[in-house]
Amino acid sequence: MKLRSYLSSYLELTKPSIMFLVIFTGATALVLEGSFLTEPGKFLLVLLGLYLSGGSANALNQYFERNIDSLMKRTSSRRPLPQNKLSPTHALIFSTVIGLSGVALFAYFFNVLTAGLALGNILFYAFFYTLYLKPNTPQNIVIGGIAGAMAPVGAWTAVTGEMALTPWILFAIIFFWTPPHFWALALYCKEDYREVRLPMMPLIKGDKSTVKQIFYYSVVVVIVSLALTLTAAGWFYSLIAVVLGGLFISKAYALRASLDEKAFRGLFGYSILYLFGLFTAIMLDGFVAGLI
Known about the structure:
Elements: H1 2-13, H2 16-33, H3 40-64, H4 66-71, H5 73-76, H6 88-109, H7 112-136, H8 140-148, H9 151-160, H10 165-188, H11 190-196, H12 201-205, H13 207-226, H14 235-254, H15 261-291
């Protein structure tokens, strides 16, 4: 049981629920590009590289924020370092090893471009976002969202060795989705952030201003999602994007009338369903179109 507990704690360092979303968006890019659909080994290797590098960034984030996490109700009872399930030294070693492994995997099996993107993402999120942006600006999650949106780009370059417009549209969808998603969380956890003196948007600008920005970003993400029809998606995706997007905008707008925890939690939960639904529609689009 002790070994199982250790392994579970190491897994928790990578933030598996977040990484599931990262892997899903990366897999969507691989499906759109198409080359590895007949090479499942390479398909899975790309996803492994994304998990190792992204998990490393998340683990380093927890290492640097272990004292903050111990003071926040949302994290103190859920993360392994505040609970003393792992030592900080072991967490740092683990983070470094899996990060270097992910970068090496991309460099050896795929290309240097993807390895460089993976390394840059680790350094950006673990150091620039965690140590500089998060404690210093309410725009932390906007800029920091770059890291969480890079999986489709990295997956695409792993296959092709070059950039293209389609993965950058996927990147833009995730990038503009991140602020309304995270600010909904920050609204109902703001006392936690107040306790540790992090300048989250609701604390600096207030609930009403944050809700307005959530609405504006929700409109932008829906518009950006429709841009995919210019490069890779068809009618099925367009229909789903309009329906899901309309619900997203309406829920974001409704927050103005109900500034309470239930509404904030509702939007946070729907934002997750929205992104999964949208990216599922992207993957199914070609298949559905072929059946009609």
